[in-house]
Amino acid sequence: EAQVTQNPRYLITVTGKKLTVTCSQNMNHEYMSWYRQDPGLGLRQIYYSMNVEVTDKGDVPEGYKVSRKEKRNFPLILESPSPNQTSLYFCASSPAGTSLFFGPGTRLTVL
Amino acid sequence: AQSVTQLGSHVSVSEGALVLLRCNYSSSVPPYLFWYVQYPNQGLQLLLKYTTGATLVKGINGFEAEFKKSETSFHLTKPSAHMSDAAEYFCAVTPDNYGQNFVFGPGTRLSVLP
Questions:
Q1: Could you report the per-residue pLDDT of A21-60, keeping only the tens digit for each?
Q2: Residues B76, B7 contacting (CB under 8 angstroms)
Q3: Which residues are CB-contacts of A99 (< 8 A; sequence separation ≥ 6)?
Q4: Which of A34, A72, A77, B8 is within CB 3.0–4.6 Å of A65 for a Cys-Cys bond?
């Protein structure tokens, strides 16, 4: 089944404790991206990647890191999480020229 | 810079009534336009999209949207609401066909009353 998977789906952590949210797609898509969803703000792009070893900042990159060492994986790293990073996070992928395919989301709470 | 506005953060309709969710965009170039739906505790699913050609676009579950360039609008409609349509709906635009510059609206939560 073609899909985008994210792990974990739910995470509660404390300020300053490094964490990684994994994202994997099995559709051989070139493009992958991360969004955060906050009430009343819709989805805002954090980072995106056009292909392996090619990443760039989106609209709200502060406090986040990404890497794209393999085509299928695009992990999101929070080196020192803070409470304002409490949010619902979505990974998405697409082949060039079409719409986005979204993962199921990761709900992160930073205490 | 692009932006998307969706009039009404929450819309309620009765079952069987017309659904109209509004989306307006600002873009310096004719954009590609999308509607996504998010059911509770799920990711976003593509409902329909406009790229080129016919300005009236049909999507899944009986939804359709019309691109009106003169009004910079892409409103979503469905003639008869069903209980299963209750969800959050997001309008999105991108200026190109490469996928990296999506801008989403704030979303409209649709409630369907029995």
A1: 999 999 999 999 999 999 888 899 999 998 899 999 998 9
A2: no
A3: B34, B46, B49, B99
A4: A77
**Rounded to 10 degrees, what is the CA torsion of A88, B82, B6, A101?**
50
Question: How many angstroms separate the CA atoms of B93 and B36, rounded?
Answer: 11
The verdict on a CB contact (< 8 Å) between A97 and B97 is: yes
Chain B partners of A92 at a C-beta cutoff of 8 Å?
44
Count Cβ atoms below 10 Å from residue B57 Cβ, excluding itself: 21
Given a contact cutoff of 8 angstroms between Cβ atoms, the answer to whether A44 and A34 are in contact is no
How do residues B64-89 score in pLDDT, each as one tens digit? 999 998 899 999 999 999 999 999 99
Q: B104 and A44: CB-CB below 8 Å?
A: yes
C-alpha span between B6 and B108 (Å, rounded)? 7
Cβ within 8 Å, pair B44-A104: no
- Alpha carbon of A43: minimum distance to chain B alpha carbons (Å): 6
Cis peptide leading into residue A8 (ω within 30°): yes
Strands annotated E in B9-104: 10-14, 19-21, 24-26, 32-38, 44-50, 56-58, 64-68, 73-78, 87-94, 103-104
